[in-house]
Design a protein that fits this description.
This protein is mainly β. It contains no helices and nine strands. The chain has a single domain, classed as Jelly Rolls, CATH 2.60.120. Helix content is 0%, strand content 42%. Strand 1 and strand 2 form a beta hairpin.
C-alpha cells in the first residue's frame, strides 16, 4: 500500500502511520501535513470518532458551523460520533497534525 497521498483539493499530504489492517480493526492513525489555506469541507462520521492532535503549527477546527477554535502543538480534540466538523490551516506556513 502507498503510505503517503497528496490531495490537491484539500492541500494536504496524508501519511498512514498505522492502518486498521495493522491494528486488527481497532484504529487508523494518520499524520497530515496541511498547506496554508488548506482544509476540508464540513462533514460527520456515523461509525467512528476522530481525534485531532496538533504536532507543529496551529490547527483550526470548526464544529457544526457554530464554533471555531485553534489547537496549539500538543493539544487535542476528539470529535464525537455524528458531530459535524472540518479542519483547516489558518496560518501562512504548513502545519502537521
Amino acid at each position: 500500500m502507498k503510505r503517503a497521498i497528496f490531495n490537491p483539493v484539500q492541500q494536504d499530504t496524508l501519511t498512514f502511520v498505522r492502518t486498521t489492517a495493522e491494528t486488527a480493526g481497532q484504529l487508523s492513525e494518520l499524520e497530515i501535513t496541511l498547506l496554508p489555506g488548506g482544509g476540508n469541507a464540513l462533514h460527520y462520521h456515523t461509525t467512528y470518532t476522530e481525534t485531532f492532535t496538533a504536532i507543529t503549527g496551529t490547527l483550526g477546527l470548526e464544529l457544526d458551523k457554530k464554533r471555531k477554535f485553534l489547537l496549539a502543538p500538543g493539544e487535542s480534540y476528539m470529535v464525537k460520533l455524528g458531530e459535524a466538523h472540518r479542519f483547516f490551516n489558518p496560518g501562512d506556513t504548513p502545519i502537521t497534525f
